[in-house]
Specification:
Layout (H helix, E strand, L loop, with lengths): L17 H10 L5 H11 L14 H7 L8 E7 L5 E6 L5 E8 L4 E4 L3 E3 L8 H4 L2 E4 L2 H15 L5 E4 L9 H13 L8 E5 L5 H6 L6 E4 L6 H7 L8 H8 L1
Parallel strand pairs: 4-7, 7-8, 8-9
Antiparallel strand pairs: 1-2, 2-3, 3-4, 5-6
Helix pairs in contact: 1-2, 5-6
């Protein structure tokens, strides 16, 4: 018997691939073609709830409406003079994260968060001073990109993991999000940048996945002593070792 893709805690559908969504609809007693319809409504038409998917019968929508897609709510939206938009998104558990949409003539870049808060406690960072709550799930990262894309009504072209949190402390979910953003949302890996202050062993681990993403390392200082003052974790990761790992 095939194990259900949805756990008793109702894991959201956002982040599942076309084949996984097809399997899911079949588990609900529906024909396979419903999987493609569900996929299109989640990734292309911006469905926030299964009740929104009008190609499904009213009866089936009523039966499955309790399954979450995994979309957040815009808690606050602020537009800068250069048209950059800052969002505070409220997650299903009430936590708030920050996302930024950065438009230009040819690009729309999204700066995404990877954690609620941050444990790194960098001296210059307000997020770190606020403490760490939890890692974001893959669907919560994907949701940020879809939210900006829908709000701007244009395709996102680039993604930078430079929002709240240290991406390499949430590698599993960041990698899952990158895979879905590439395959399901259609953003090329070469247009995705993962930024880190440097976590021992994690850069080498990331390299083993042989992604085509760009790695950005935030040094913040050119000498070890000053870097340790600004970034407490640098005490256990000397600048020379960090540079060697990047090579």
């Amino acid at each position: 018997m095939t194990q259900s893709l949805i756990t008793p805690t109702q894991t959201p559908l956002l982040g599942l691939s076309l084949s996984e969504l097809t399997e899911w609809v079949q588990q609900q007693g529906q024909p396979a073609y419903r999987g493609k319809q569900l996929y299109q409504w989640i990734y292309q038409k911006g469905a926030k709830s299964l009740a929104d998917i009008t190609v499904f019968s009213k009866q089936w929508r009523e039966e499955i409406k309790h399954f979450p897609i995994g979309r957040s709510a815009i808690h606050y939206r602020s537009v800068a003079p250069d048209k950059t938009v800052k969002y505070l998104l409220q997650l299903s558990d009430g936590n708030i994260i920050e996302t930024v949409g950065i438009p230009s003539h040819k690009r729309l870049t999204v700066c995404v968060s990877s954690q609620v808060g941050c444990p790194m406690a960098c001296d210059f960072c307000a997020t770190g001073k606020g403490g760490f709550t939890r890692n974001l799930e893959a669907y919560e990262i994907i949701d940020q990109v879809l939210t900006v894309q829908e709000d701007f009504e244009r395709r996102v072209s680039h993604i930078v993991f430079m929002g709240m949190g240290e991406p390499l402390l949430n590698t599993k979910n960041v990698l899952a999000a990158v895979k879905s953003l590439n395959q399901d949302v259609g953003i090329g890996q070469r247009n995705i940048t993962i930024s880190t202050v440097g976590i021992r062993d994690r850069i080498r681990q990331l390299a083993q996945h042989k992604l085509q993403v760009t790695l950005a390392v935030s040094l913040h200082a050119s000498n070890q002593r000053l870097r340790e003052h600004l970034i407490p974790s640098a005490k256990s990761y000397p600048l020379g070792d960090l540079i060697a790992d990047c090579r």
